[in-house]
Amino acid sequence: MRVLDFTQWEAGPSCSMMLAWLGADVVKLEPPGGEIARKVLGVGPGDSQYFLNYNANKRGIAINLKTTAGRKLLLDMIPRFDVFVENQGPGVVESLKLDPEILCALNPKLIYARIKGYGLSGPYSDYKSFDPLALAASGIFSMTGAPEGPPMPPGASFADTGTGLHAALGITAAYVQQQRTGKGQVIELSMHEAMTMFIRTMTAMYWGPDSPPAPRRSHDGFPPSGIYRCKGGGPNDYAVMLIVLPRMWQALCEAIGHPELTDDARFAQPAGRFDHQTELHAIIEGWTLQRDKQEVMRVLGEAGVPVSATYDTAQVFNDPHLIARDFFKKVPHPEKG
Q1: Domain locations along the chain
Q2: Model pLDDT for residues 234-263, shown as the tens digit of each residue
Q3: Per-residue pLDDT tens digits for 32-86
Q4: What does the H/E/C string look like for the chain?
Q5: How deeply is 335 buried, as exposed, middle or buried, from its count of CB atoms within 10 A (0-12, 13-18, 19+)?
Q6: What span, in angstroms and rounded, lies between the C-alpha atoms of 76 and 274?
Q7: Of 74, 177, 160, which is closest to residue 115 (Cα–Cα)?
Q8: 82 is catalytic
Q9: Which among 268, 274, 259, 258 has a CA at the least distance from the CA of 226?
């Protein structure tokens, strides 16, 4: 698969980079001065780590598409590619006269993928969008954060990367069809719609226009699932548990040294645990506060309780589990080393 990558920032580059790591020959198309993301969050000379995170394993070409010669050069390249992917702002490719009708006429086998904030139709289609805007429009902000606080972002760029992965999957499916039929197609991905699909678990509980909105929550609402403080008292010294089966509840009680809780009339049934969640939380947190989060994770995890320490971004890179699985790879770079 040969991919001509006319993307910028994160959503589009996430798509093309995933295709590149899967084996596609990806050529990134940039203006003569380079994509703006090359300097975003940069420290020191050369391309920023931000740019490298989304554009590894690609080749590159710089063309001034605003000139007649530059546009002709691009059009001459189109028959050599299987895929053209773009996530430019509303109306940009049309103003450059690079829309699907033109490119697909030059190469009927071309898969033309378009990643947009709100899609190509509808009342919002002309609006610019970035990751947090798609998260806000999809309802994800409204469910994130403390119940008494404002809506908040979830912390990671789910809209950009999630939409990029959806686009890569769509392109892969279209490529299989292209190999069978010899025909290309146009693919359209909306960040707004991709993120709305991400909330399907909550919409299963709060379904329909007449239903109340899903509540803002800082943890799962089914005690004893929740977030528990741990020894250390730092901003991320917490453990997160999700208890969904009776055997998990029993394993938790035994692991924290309170097997009697399973027979306690207040906590024996899920409804009772919900009604007495403040008391139950205090009992469990009394145990977690005596241990650091890694010990809580080890003890409960080995007991069969679904649990995780809350890692900060620095700790993630030193996580012994990820290291043992050889998750992190060293890739040489001509400037960064």
Answers
A1: 2-198, 226-324
A2: 999 999 999 989 999 999 999 999 999 999
A3: 989 988 888 766 667 888 898 889 999 999 999 999 999 999 999 999 999 999 9
A4: CEEEEECCCCHHHHHHHHHHHCCCEEEEEECCCCCHHHCCCCCCCCCCHHHHHHHCCCEEEECCCCCHHHHHHHHHHHHHCCEEEECCCCCHHHHCCCCHHHHHHHCCCCEEEEEECCCCCCCCCCCCCCHHHHHHHCCCHHHECCCCCCCCCCCCCHHHHHHHHHHHHHHHHHHHHHHHHCCCEEEEEEHHHHHHHHCHHHHHHCCCCCCCCCCCECCCCCCCCEEEECCCCCCCCEEEECCCCHHHHHHHHHHCCCHHHHHCCCCCCHHHHHHCHHHHHHHHHHHHCCCCHHHHHHHHHHCCCCEEECCCHHHHCCCHHHHHCCCCCCCCCCCCC
A5: exposed
A6: 66
A7: 160
A8: no
A9: 274
Distance (Å) of CA 42 to CA 52, 151, 245: 10, 29, 47
Query: Given 160, 210, 275, 312, which residue is catalytic?
Result: 160
- 334 Cβ neighbours under 8 A, 6+ residues apart: none
Question: Any idea which residue has 């086998």 for tokens?
Answer: 109
Cα gap 247→250, rounded to integer Å: 5
Phi, psi of 44 (to 5 degrees): 85, -175
The CATH number of 2-198 is: 3.40.50.10540
pTM of the model: 0.83
Give φ, ψ of 4 to 5 degrees: -100, 115
Domain 226-324, what architecture? 2-Layer Sandwich (3.30)
Cα gap 282→181, rounded to integer Å: 63
